[in-house]
Amino acid sequence: MKFAFVIFKYFPFGGAQRDMMRIARECVKRGHEVHVYTLSWQGLLPEDGIHVHVVEGRGWMNHRRYQDFIRRIQSEIAAAHFDLVVGFNRMPGLDVYFAADPCFIERAQTKWKRLRSLNGRYRFFAESELAVFSHASNCEILLLSPREKPIFQRWYDTQETRFHLVPPCIAIDRYTNIDVKEARRSVRAEFGLMDDAWLLLMVGSGFRTKGLDRAIEGLAALPPEVKSRTRLLAVGQDNAQTFLALAKKLGLRDQVIISGGRDDIPRLMHAADLLVHPARSELAGHVLIEAMASGLPVLVSDVCGYAFHVAQAGAGELVSSPFDQQRFNLQLQQMLVSGPLEAWSANGREYAHILMRANDGSAEAEVIEATAQRKIGKA
Q: What's the predicted TM-score (pTM) here?
């Protein structure tokens, strides 16, 4: 069969982007033809039978470019006679949607309370979400976390049968075949850290959404003897200036390190002592599963879709909502100073192996195949 995958922007360190490539490769492995349509592509083009089409979208604002991009690809896709269209952003015309973002309309109720209906960006994203989740839509939904389903159903009356909860997928070998002592030594040497330094790790693009400012505030609030030996390394694609300015203001200029996206995250996780992820919003949070597979204890906001896996595994602690900075500061201190780090590490590794057995990477492809077969049968 012939599938079209659609995503607004591709960059190699994005969570939805990595999932898209993983699913595309699984579909190709099963003998299908996959074409990716996108506004922009960063990084190397795939060499494993996946065809990439970069299609221009015109407009002064992002949502205008998205609208123009959708209009252009819809005509191209129709002319190419695809069996199925799979979207990794919300838009009209999808047969399957990979739900990598939380409910837009739910979040909008606490923002833009004035002039919402006059805001072009709001209208575009609200209409795109309606096209996917409406009761009248036939789009199947690959759901990463059960947390968001009742929210979508409350707004759109989406049928239960259209949701397909897929377990996290983890390439366990990538996170286990690493020499921990060598990783700790080499990473500390790379960043000029003392051998006995505590290393806090944050991973993810979109630093404000991931809560980097909260993590910096937490580091600043540690007792002097703990703070002096603790460093925070944040890895991801974003503008770092605001956060470096905050670190400087709090006297942490030499203790906060911000790096761009990297492809050696498993090595960094084996070198770190704690993953901090005080995110403001996170539909899933694959980095939490990666940390557990690496044996890295986790401190995470309970708003993250995959936070329940950390709790079930006993692989760290959850920061309860509503977020309280002082409570987070105290949890961070207690985890570093007196937390059962070794137990959390062992529990996380064991749980990650259980998850690997639940989804070997084929769960999403199976839903895509089944949806295509039903669609072809109705034609």
A: 0.86
